[in-house]
Design goal:
The chain has 29 helices and six strands. With 576 residues, the chain is mainly alpha-helical.
């Protein structure tokens, strides 16, 4: 499957003659290069051109030629897109990484290592087919029905969604396994982030940005929700976005060049490809805004709020493979051509799960927000609370909108730190977030999550080594067994999977986690991955700088901030 990366540009033309000359001297030293491709895929062609220009020979495998070849691509890489590249037995994940390596003059050097072979010819047919199967977790994790909850703190959520959607979203049948996460996500994050974003950028633009960020991720569930949630107002959003892009939208439409720039910003946040040019484009069209009366900077922050909410939801919903509500699935298919895809449709459940008398009483949404904000206030404010719980006030947290900052701090801390309501150790949670950030190429988050893992691990040499090697464990390479248990490695593999676009769960890569953790523990791990996705999209737009304490930690332990080097260490060079 070929997948268009938002904002991807070919950087081959920037390569210097030194790159070409360098390759001539080492052609005979290269290990075997294998590229899985498909016809008429521009990313595949760009990748092959890069290798050819460098004089680097490769074997090409067309995934449309046979079922075995298609399965091998997924079985070996864990990723559902092409191209997938192997230099020896080192997996290079797609065209964008190949181009980035080439632009950094690292690709040729990477091919000089004796890195073994993937052994594709010796793999049994049945093993390859089974290992490549997309094992959708909604068939493995039982549902937890909260529509008749006896917890008074959950009742306001039921009333809210009955008024907002008319039903309790299917994703909550899985999120409800971790009640604290369920409540905190709604009260401490989603109500505020979606509400603030909608207030700033306006409802139609909120739908457009939510659709764009979900489309870039490939989450069919959230694409359907953003298309169908507003009825006639939202069903035409995907077509309207494309009409604006081609200059064919009516002047009276709520989406114009400024709103399109915001949608593209949300999409770029998904792929961690936000650039200064894109932010400048948003600002340059601000005087042409059709909905919002706020400044360009406020609209950028409103978009960051929407993107952050869907960073959590896209990741959670794709990892669980939650089925799409039948009525909305049919509407989105008919009006916008959006397929259910791997999610499927919950034909056995109509959208009437709240069509019963809901319990009255209990705290309101405002009461719950006040409760959560009170916890932070009792610690003498956000800075003091974060420093007390995390050891520092993270730079991304200082950029969070001030009215929502206390709630966000509480949500992050309760999800990521050691708590009685979570069976997963805090150190592992932060290592998972670091592995996810490395996979996404987010240097800042990889650094700060490494520092947080080090703190949670007791600031020992062993804790530093675990920070150093967590991505190796996620990729199953090197001496990871010296630092992690099999269960911890399974969790880190899950974190790596959660960073893939589009996100799938091939059996070979997900099964170790299914064996190592209970269903409820899996929901906790999935939630951690989702929190990482939330922060990554916000930080991609707001671009925080690495904290002084984190810089000092990295220097003291000889840890790099270069996530490209961590993903693809050069031969004979230790990369931390």
């Amino acid at each position: 499957m070929c997948f268009t990366l938002v904002g991807f540009q070919c950087r081959y033309s920037t390569l210097t003659c030194d790159y070409v000359a360098q390759t001539q001297a080492i052609k005979t030293m290269t290990p075997k290069i294998q590229i899985f491709t498909k016809p008429n895929c521009r990313f595949c062609e760009t990748t092959k051109q890069t290798f050819r220009q460098g004089g680097l020979a490769y074997d090409e495998h067309d995934v449309t030629a046979s079922e075995r070849t298609a399965n091998l691509s997924v079985y070996l890489s864990g990723v559902a897109t092409v191209p997938q590249i192997f230099i020896g037995n080192m997996h290079v994940n797609g065209a964008q990484d190949v181009m980035t390596l080439a632009a950094a003059d690292r690709l040729v050097s990477l091919t000089t290592g004796e890195t073994g072979d993937i052994g594709m010819d010796s793999l049994p047919e049945a093993e390859v087919a089974a290992g490549a199967e997309d094992l959708v977790l909604n068939a493995v994790i039982p549902e937890s029905n909260g529509t008749h909850s006896e917890d008074p703190e959950e009742w306001a959520i039921l009333h809210f969604y009955k008024a907002f959607f008319g039903f309790w979203p299917n994703c909550f049948y899985f999120m409800h396994h971790w009640p604290e996460a369920y409540k905190l996500f709604v009260y401490a994050h989603n109500v505020g982030a979606i509400g603030a974003g909608r207030e700033i950028i306006g409802e139609p633009v909120m739908m457009a940005t939510g659709f764009a960020t979900s489309n870039a991720h490939g989450c069919n569930y959230c694409q359907v929700h953003m298309t169908a949630a507003g009825g006639e107002k939202s069903l035409g959003i995907p077509q309207l976005i494309e009409a604006v892009r081609s200059g064919k939208a009516p002047a009276t439409a709520p989406i114009g060049p400024f709103e399109l720039a915001l949608a593209d910003l949300a999409a770029a946040a998904t792929t961690n490809t936000v650039t200064a040019d894109l932010l400048s484009r948003v600002k340059s069209f601000a005087d042409k805004a059709r909905v919002s009366q706020a400044s360009a900077e406020a609209n950028i922050m409103g978009t960051a709020m929407i993107a952050s909410a869907f960073g959590f939801l896209n990741t959670f919903n794709d990892l669980t493979g939650v089925e799409i509500e039948a009525a909305w699935a049919k509407q989105a298919q008919a009006a916008a051509g959006i397929e259910a895809g791997r999610h499927g449709v919950s034909e056995n459940r109509t959208s009437n799960n709240l069509d019963h008398k809901l319990p009255e009483g209990g705290p309101s949404i405002d009461d719950m927000i006040a409760k959560y904000e009170g916890i932070v206030a009792a610690a003498d404010g956000v800075d003091a609370y974060a420093t007390q719980e995390l050891g520092l006030m993270p730079a991304w947290m200082t950029l969070w909108p001030e009215p929502l900052r206390a709630r966000h701090a509480l949500f992050y801390v309760e999800m990521m730190q050691s708590r009685d309501h979570s069976p997963i150790a805090s150190e592992l949670k932060h290592l998972m977030a670091r592995a996810s950030a490395i996979a996404k190429g987010h240097d800042y988050l990889a650094a700060v999550e490494g520092w947080l893992a080090y703190q949670a691990g007791g600031e020992t040499p062993q804790a530093a080594d675990r920070v150093r090697h967590c991505f190796d464990a996620a990729k199953g390479r090197g001496a990871w067994r010296s630092h992690f248990t099999a269960a911890e490695q399974a969790a880190l593999v899950l974190a790596w999977l959660s960073a893939q676009i589009p996100l799938t769960t091939p059996r070979r890569f997900i099964e170790p986690a299914l064996k190592a953790f209970s269903s409820v523990e899996l929901v906790h791990l999935i939630t951690v991955c989702s929190v990482a996705g939330l922060i990554q999209r916000f930080a991609a737009i707001t671009q925080p700088q690495i904290e002084p304490q984190v810089k000092d930690f990295l220097v003291r332990h000889n840890l790099t901030t270069d996530t490209l080097a961590i993903r693809y260490p050069l031969p004979n060079k230790v990369v931390a």
